[in-house]
Write a structure and sequence with these properties.
The protein has five helices and twelve strands. With about 230 residues, the chain is α+β, with helices and mostly antiparallel strands. Strands 3, 4, 5, 6, 7, 8, 9, 10, 11 and 12 form a ten-stranded mixed sheet that branches. It has a two-stranded antiparallel sheet with strand order 1-2. The protein is globular and about 45 Å long.
Length: about 230
Amino acid sequence: MAESAFVPISDSDFSKLQYEDREQSDVAGPYGQWRSSHRSSEVQSWYRPDTQTNTDALKFKLTLNGITSEEVYQLLTDLQLRLGWNTDLETMEILEWQDEEAVVYWTSKSNCCFTRRDALLKVATRHEGDQILMVAKDTTHPKAPIVPGVIRVETFLSGCIIRPLEGDPSSSTLTVLQQLDFKGWIPKCFISSRFMAYHWYNNMTGYYSRNVQLVKSKAAERRLNMA
């Protein structure tokens, strides 16, 4: 991987992701206190104010019935699938890839509410037992310089944990952690933890129901490549 793209993602980054995943609502931890914003059988969400960055950290947990952990991983990492369900994105590219680390560049769509934005991230993946952990951090790369008129999103915390649903390996849970500075003006309702949770849940499950065989075939292809 090119030196310009090197951003160390360490054991401590994965440990923090796991700690934040376990940290419960209404309990003050070293990074502050998570506050519950919504709870249902499929979707739970929390937020945590951060006065230092003036942004909220968001956490949401999705229960994805009938979608396996491998299929969720494909929905997150396969560019065709990701652009199919993540309707906010205009483009997504993997600029470099080595082992379980990638440099990822994405751009968002623009409309009356949103100025076009982009982000450049180093993403590392780790498999621990039946869990898949992913951590993302800001980076730089010569193939993705700052573009005039496009706002670059700053990432303070980003990651996810994919697990089989306890007692039902044909289903899974996806926990997502995000703390992003979108910069510029953006309606707060669109970046609340509850909105983001349902936005992901509805888009992922809706896309999956329409493209079951495509997702399953890509998951099976990945298993063959790893064998």
